[in-house]
Amino acid sequence: MTATAEKLAARAEDLPEGSMRRKVLEGAQRFKSAWVELGRLLSEVRRKELWRGWGYPSFERYCTKELFIRGATADKLTASYGFLERHEPELAKARGETRAPPFEVIEVLSRAEATGRLSDSGWRELRDEVIERPPTPAAMNRKIAERFGPPPPPPAPPRSERVERLAAAARRLASACRDEDAMPRSVAQKADALAGEIEALLDR
């Protein structure tokens, strides 16, 4: 048993048998072999905001502190479970060991659906292969790109974030120029002035 599994087991033992909180901990222990169960439980915890009653300020904090699962992983799990629940409700209802495809493969499909690349008809095209002979996540990505096009480019960061990055880079350059003996003082002053001008844009 891994250190994380031991911690989860120890916490579960302190909780009432059959309680929702204990069920989620036990689901986290079986994550790899029964991801659908954990996805279902986490979806319920998030939907009903049960983490509030357990003393956590957010769903993400509950996942990291109690289940030792990163918030990003919990988001992928609940999104993947949602995909399965919409398209394969019988698999989503299964308890314990399931014949559901690996979590990583469903997560690829869930992301494709969220970006508008995978429709209901697209899922029906892929369904038999995914259910009966699950490909690797990389192969699934390639197949979706071939049939439905490449993923859309990520949205550009907001203007303030872009300017802030440039200001930080300019400030590092100015500092390096000041500390470099081979750099003429006039060049270091220009670098410092440039950093100041870019920083001033942050206030606009």
Structural commentary:
- The mean pLDDT is 86.
- The longest helix has 21 residues, at 159-179.
- The chain folds into two domains: 3-148, no CATH class; 159-203, no CATH class.
- The chain is extended, with a radius of gyration of 24 Å.
- By secondary structure, the protein is mostly helical.
- It starts with a helix and ends with a helix.
- It contains twelve helices and no strands.
Number of domains: 2
User: In which range does the helix fraction lie?
Assistant: over 70%
Number of helices: 12
| Oligomerization status of the protein chains | single chain
Total strands: 0
Low-confidence stretches: none
Keywords:
single chain, mainly alpha, 12 helices, 70% helix, extended
What's this, in brief?
This protein has about 200 residues and is mainly α. It has helices at about 5-15, 20-30, 35-50, 50-55, 60-65, 70-85, 90-95, 105-115, 120-130, 135-150, 160-180, 185-200.
Which helices and strands appear, and what pairs or packs with what?
Elements: H1 3-13, H2 20-29, H3 35-48, H4 50-53, H5 59-66, H6 71-87, H7 89-93, H8 103-114, H9 120-132, H10 137-148, H11 159-179, H12 185-200
Helix pairs in contact: 1-2, 2-3, 3-6, 6-8, 8-10, 11-12
